[in-house]
Every structure is written in structure tokens, then in C-alpha cells.
Design goal:
Blueprint lengths: L5 H24 L2 E4 L6 H7 L4 H11 L4 E2 L3 E2 L4 E4 L46 E7 L9 E4 L2 E4 H18 L3 E4 L1 E2 L18 E2 L3 E2 L4 H18 L4 E10 L10 E4 L4 H21 L9 E3 L4 H5 L3 E9 L3 H8 L1 H20 L2
Parallel strand pairs: 5-8, 5-12, 12-15, 13-14
Antiparallel strand pairs: 1-4, 2-3, 6-7, 9-10, 10-11, 13-15
Helix pairs in contact: 2-3, 4-9, 6-9
Amino acid sequence: MKFISLSFFKNVITLVFLFLSFNVTAQKDSLETVIAEKGEGIYALLRKKGVNPYETFDAFVALNIDNIRDSIHVYEGRTYKIPNVEEKVKVQEPKKAIPNVAPNAGKGYGIFGKKYRKVPIKSSKLKNAVFYLVAGHGGPDPGAMATYAGKPIAEDEYAYDITLRLARELISHGALVYIIIRDNNDGIRDKRILKIDHDEVAYQNKVIPLNQLARLKQRVDIVNELYAKHKGQYQRLIVTHVDSRSKGQNIDVFFYHHEKSKSGKNLAENIHKTFQKKYKKYQPNRTYSGTFEHRTELYLVRKTWPAMTFIEIGNIRNKKDQKRILEPDNRQALAKWISEGAILDFQKR
């Protein structure tokens, strides 16, 4: 009887492993590719290849995640892989969650920080209104980065500060507000340079996933679960971002909404009208060029249930826009104007 040597088995296993590795690589390499041209987005690329963009958007993002900015923007001139229609996106859930911290009864809202924790009640204009506020990025993702006075600044810190200020304004008029992305130790900060950290969590102290698509899905799931809880009430979602275009491009605040949502369009339009009015009053010699339009390819716009607006505050890499973003009083003004637009929308519903 002949015995097969151990080295023979090792050689067979090695050959099988190499075959499988080659097979997986070949499958990836066999995917169709497309080069992004000027002005094209994900939807346009998918349509150009004859693929249903609504069925394959998530798979496209997962497949090209390292080659996409802010999970929605492709780069002109770069090559992107087109997923197979049957391809599914696997989203990793956080492995653990930070224990919930109960609020201190009678001591105000600790999340706003010591200076701003007590919220004066100004009116009941937003009584029975429910708002969900999402500050862009956070946790392992700082968002757009730039340098000011030799120090690094990050999008998520400024979007979060504006979001906290907005939450405080809405609460002061009687609204119920859910702050979805939270930092339990920052609070509202009256500084120009906001220190960068990565300890933000999602509502109810859930760890924010490292995977970009998982982060977006986590926010969608939280908002939609809360929306079901408040079914029948006036509910609105406001997402705040700071854009990151070329250094030379100065932009005004602009707003996105879902193309099929009349309520979302009204919300964006009412806040936009408020900004037009404020600019006319406080900067009469300057034309406000901010716009509102539908952008259904944005993940949070497509997947969340409440009527919503997605707000881009400005270009963090542009010196003129940095003045708007870094100055604490300007961040407060932005929050107040957004809240006034929300009040207008609530009153016109």
C-alpha cells in the first residue's frame, strides 16, 4: 500500500488556494468599467452602461468606495467598476455600543455644553413638530479637511456645531428634536478653530461604523425607526454638510430635496426664501446665489422617510466661505435662519 506524503497534500492545497484566488480576482477584473466625464454623477454612469441606477446604486458605492468623495461624488477622469445586477451590498453592523448615558433631570440639555445647556422658551410655534437633525460625517470620518492659520479644520466639527445651535433654536420654539449624530463632551463651542476628535456616536450611543455605506445606513435606520414611532405628526429631517470644492470656488448655502417629495421641496424652498430675505436685509449689496433643487442620488435623501432637506453650508477650502463657517456668530446666524425657515414651513403646512 502506497502512502501519500504530507508535502503532496500541501502542494494540492496550495494549488487549490491559488485557483480560488485567481478565480475571485478574475471575477472582479471581469466587471465592466466606465470613465467618469465632466458633470457626470453615479446615476449618469450607471445609465450610460445600461444598468438600472435605482437597483445598483448601493452596490456601485460599495464597489468603488475608495474612489468616491462623500459617498456620492465621482471624480472626473477616473475609472469606475459597474456592479452586476444581482450583486448585493453587505453592510457591517457595529460590533459594540457605548452604554447609554441618562440625562440629568432639571439641569437642562447637557449635550449643548455648560454655557448653553439651559434653553429659554421663546414661543410654542413648533409645538407638536418633530425634527431629526443629522450633522454630516462624524466618528471615524471627519469629512472635508482644510487648513486655517496653520491648523487643520474638519467638516464634521463645524456641521455638528451648527446642528447643535439649530437644535437649540428649534427646542426654544417648542419642537421635539432628535440629534442623530452626537458628541457627548463637545457642546456648542464659541471658537473659530474647533478641535478635531473622533468620539461622535449615533443616537442612543451607537458606535459609528468605519465603513462609509454602513454609516449612512445606520443613520437611515435610526431616522426611519423614529419616524414610525411618531407617525401622523409633522416630521422633518435636516441634514447639514460643509462642501469641499476647489479652493477658488466660493458658494452660497444651498439645499437639496427628494424630487418626488412635495413636503421636502416646500421645506427646502421655505428655508431658501428665508436666506434670500436675510441676505437682502443684512447684505443688500450682495446677490444671494444659493439654490434649492432635487438630488435623489444622495443616499440619505433617497432612503429616509421624513420629508427632508440636505443643506450645504459652504466650501471649507475657500477663504471667503471659511469666514462664514469659522466665525461662531455666523454659525449661530445660520442656525437661526434655518430654524426660521423651518417655522415658516410648519406654519404653512
